[in-house]
Each structure stands twice: as structure tokens, then as C-alpha cells.
Amino acid sequence: MGHGGGGAMSAELVEHVFAPAFGGPLLASLGDSAALTLGGARLAFSTDSFVVRPLFFPGGSIGDLAVNGTVNDLAMSGARPAYLSCAFILEEGVEMSVVARVAQALGEAARRAGVEVVTGDTKVVEAGHGDGIYLNTAGIGLIPAGVDIRAQRAAPGDVVIVSGDIGVHGVAVMSVREGLEFGVRIESDCAALGGLVEAMLAVTPDLHVLRDPTRGGLGAALNEIAVAAGVGVLVQERAVPVPDEVANACAVLGLDPMYVANEGKLVAFVPREHAEAVLAAMRAHPLGARATVIGECVADHPGMVVARTGLGGTRVVDLPIGEQLPRIC
């Protein structure tokens, strides 16, 4: 299970098995999506699979995740998402009403995100060889001229901004999966981030890095960027926005909010001269109302993420080995 968790085990699987098998310079960047040039147009192309359990959870469903996850991967390249494919892998015996409910949620999420599902596939596996419904989506979008967003562009001096509260999605899924009550209803932050990214790009096309911290959470995303760019990241631990209900749930479950998945948040590395204006634009957008600066990119400790604690000390924020919460997307 750890090999699918977005941490060190996932990275080793990609590095030692998939990358050597597939090869090619376009794959080497290992971003959320691939940036391609085709017929004079710059395209972003991404694919993702969704195996969340349960299929429906507070604030969303596997159908919402399938759209928003892929749309957000495209948006993290600065692309305007346009078209999706969708494949349903159904387990024999799943009720048709459940399939219809997922399909309806997926279609509504696509319309909200401004994309169209234009092709797809259906497969059925024998009872006991699946878990109701698995989904795969792929998407393409156009990258505007002058936009070059990728992890390798992170540079010392960049300001690190997160668009809002972290850890919400993972805790929402875990609460309903395990039947846990935390005194308040925790709903997933699942959302399409294309509009928020467009608002940021309207300030400046020179955004260095965007990443949606899904599997492995904010901690994994920051580590991936630090390694890709060969820079250090210094985070102010008290600045990281963790809502009380998430902090309390993580304390009960023995989890670190830095590694809990998100589905409607992004982290941005922005040149310092543009940071204030970009932050203001994010806060003016509904999906960035709680955006905050959490740290900076530094030349020290390249490839490492370090958090400065509230007591004035520091700790290393490692890349997680596997996944704290499996099957959350």
C-alpha cells in the first residue's frame, strides 16, 4: 500500500521501475502534468486514478475527486483545463443506482470546473476483485504564452504560500470511514482550482511553482519541490493553517497534519517581488480566502524541508515513507 501513497516508496517505484521502462525527457520532470508542444500549441496532459473508500464522504464523492483531481493537476502547470476522459471500473454486483449517483456527481463537477467529458471506457471485474467503483480520468488543457510553472524553477528568495487550511480532506474521509465523531462535522475541501490559478496568473505569469498537496500532504509536496530544484525550504510551523478540528482529529488518530491529503488547496512558490500582490489576489478568490505565507525558499540545506517551531527550534520535515491514510483519493 505504501507504494501508492505519494511518499518515498512511491518515488522509489517511479525512479527504479517506471522511469527506466518508459524513458524520455518529457517524463523526467515528473510534474503533476506533462507540458507538451503540439501543432504550435502548448498543452498540459495528465491522468489519475481514484480508489477512495468510501465512495461518498462529507463534502464530496469519488466522482468529484475524479474531476477535480485531474483538473487541478492541469492547473498546476498554469493550464486552462478543457477536456477529460473517464473510465469506470465496476465490480460485479455494484448497484446501478450507485453507479448513476457517481456519474451524476462527476458530470456536475465537470460542469462546475468548466470542462467537458468527451470520451471514456467501462470495464467490469468479478465480485470480490474490486471495491464497487474505481475511476480513471485523463485531461488536457492549454498553457498560456509566457507561463512556465514547474518544480525545477523554485529559487532561493521565493515566498511559499498555501491557499488555505490543510488536512481537511483526509480527515473528512477518515472520519466517515471509521465512524469517528470529533464534535463538529468535517467536510472535504475537494474543489477545482483553475479559477484561483487564473486569478494568480492575472497578477503575473511568472509563478515559479504550483503544486496541489494531495497524497502525502503538504510535507510531501514541499519535499518533492525541494529535491527537484535542489533548494531548501524553510517553513514557519505556526504559520501553517491547520484548523482546530483537523488538529484535534490528528491528535486522536496519531497523525501529522503536514502529511494529510488535501483536494482543494495549492502551494505556490512566488518570486518575492510579486508575493504580496499574488497573496491579495488569492484572498480575493473564494478558494483562497485563507491563503497565507508559510515560509520561503532558501539556498541552505538543498533538497530538505525544515520547519521552525514555535519554541524557536527547527525540525526536518521528511518525505513520508508511505501513506498515513490509504485510499483517500
UniProtKB/TrEMBL annotation:
Domain PurM-like C-terminal as annotated: residue spans: 156-301
Domain of life: Bacteria
UniProt cross-references to CDD domains, sorted A to Z: HypE
Domain PurM-like N-terminal: from-to ranges: 32-143
Cross-referenced InterPro entries: HypE (IPR011854), PurM-like_C_dom (IPR010918), PurM-like_C_sf (IPR036676), PurM-like_N (IPR016188), PurM-like_N_sf (IPR036921)
Pfam families per record: AIRS, AIRS_C
Entry similarity comment: Belongs to the HypE family.
Protein's name in the database: Hydrogenase expression/formation protein HypE
Native organism: Kitasatospora herbaricolor
Lineage: Bacteria, Bacillati, Actinomycetota, Actinomycetes, Kitasatosporales
